[in-house]
TrEMBL record, chain A:
GO terms for cellular component: ATP-binding cassette (ABC) transporter complex. Belongs to the binding-protein-dependent transport system permease family. The chain crosses the membrane at residues 20-42, 54-75, 95-118, 139-161, 198-217. It comes from Liquorilactobacillus aquaticus DSM 21051. It is found in: Cell membrane. Its main location: membrane. This is ABC-type amino acid transport permease component. SUPFAM superfamilies: MetI-like. PANTHER family: L-CYSTINE TRANSPORT SYSTEM PERMEASE PROTEIN TCYL (PTHR30614:SF0), MEMBRANE COMPONENT OF AMINO ACID ABC TRANSPORTER (PTHR30614). It holds the Pfam family BPD_transp_1. It is a multi-pass membrane protein. One of its GO terms (molecular function) is transmembrane transporter activity. It comes from the Bacteria.
Amino acid sequence: MRNFELIGNFLLQLLPVINITLTVSVSALVLGSFIGLILTLGKIGSSRILRGIVAGYISIVRATPPIIMIFLVYYGLPFITANFFKINIEGWNRIYFVIIALTLLFSAPVAEIMRSAYLSIDKGQYEAGIMVGMNKFQIFYRIILPQATVVALPNYATALINLLKEGSLTFTIGVVDMVAKSQMIVSNNSGGYAWQTYGSLALIYWALSLAIGRVVALSEKAYQKKRQSISI
Amino acid sequence: MLKIRGLKKSYAENEILKGIDLDVKKGDVITIIGPSGAGKTTLLRNITTLESADSGKIEFENIQGDYSALTRQETKKLRQSIGFVFQNYNLFNNKTALQNVMEGLLTAKRMPKQEARTEALKALERVGLLEYKDQYPVQLSGGQQQRVGIARAIALKPKVIFFDEPTSALDPELVGEVLQVMRSLAHEGTTMVIVTHQMRFAQEISNKIVFMVAGRVVESGTAQAVFENPRAERTRQFLAETLVQY
């Protein structure tokens, strides 16, 4: 019983900083999806050079461990901006660096997911779009993308859950998120109650992951319904 | 109205179209027939710029010149003045029948939504599918899907509609409804270029038949001339083979 009490108590201490985790994840989700979309366009486009660049970018990003990506961005980006653009960003809130690192990490799987979803859509519809006079952008935006999104949803959820977990490395550059807070709690207790502390942290991550899975499942279902709705 | 001269297309070493001439006048119903591999579908796809022809001249509206030298504007203009009905319907799967027909009106013609809706409903009515307007393609039979495909083409009021084997993917009992729609379009004076294996239908509705073999036009003329008095030996052979089953 004592353990449940402790875990409940730790949960209450950790939850107030959940907004850091959420901010990081949601920002990287939005920005990474956007960059992933652009990468996808490059990858399915007709320019060979562009395809090569995108493929190179994706394989490098995929081969970079999350923690190294965070360090690279945190230590490397200020160096680049200072030397090439004469902009000093050392005073930036550290959370921005995490968001940039995770955005880069997230964009690679998104590009792959979107590309395979795109390839799964029957291309006859593209030709049909051309023949009713639509331009490439209209066909992509109005016909291909809505269908590809549905195909991509399950894989997207997996990537999003990975992103959420990668976000647990935020503490490594000194942002006080739930992980950092857990560490503080444990050290304040001189190393005691460690498993209860990290247990409550794990509970929060489980709940978030489950919620993501649930939302995706619901939106999949909603689309199925829309398609099969019969309204004569 | 549409004049094609010396259209050529090769894939790798294979020359599929070896210089095709085609004249389409307003109100024409032209059917292209011929054995598999003759290049009939390839011809339609190249005329309509779905594929880029290697060479050949086109005269259409105020477009004049070689296919290999069409500007973006000209290609766009050409595509907006023609309709295309696909063998596999190629309906937009995320849109209802009505939305499928409205799509081109909204995007390419930039018509206001209400007006596009009215036009689209008219087109659906012409193919007899008004009561299916809110169905998605997955909920429609092949014949119904193809009729939506035809509605999508006619809604844009194209100068000429190309039909690429419109009934080839259909179950036999669904062929009739599609042919019926095409028949009524022909009677209303729609200019059509059709590739089909429905010989009786071709004979019935076409005012001109083009017989192709191996990338060349072997014979062309009125339906009566080609079907009843074929000049070329190859045409006679083909007709004997295909018509015997009826």
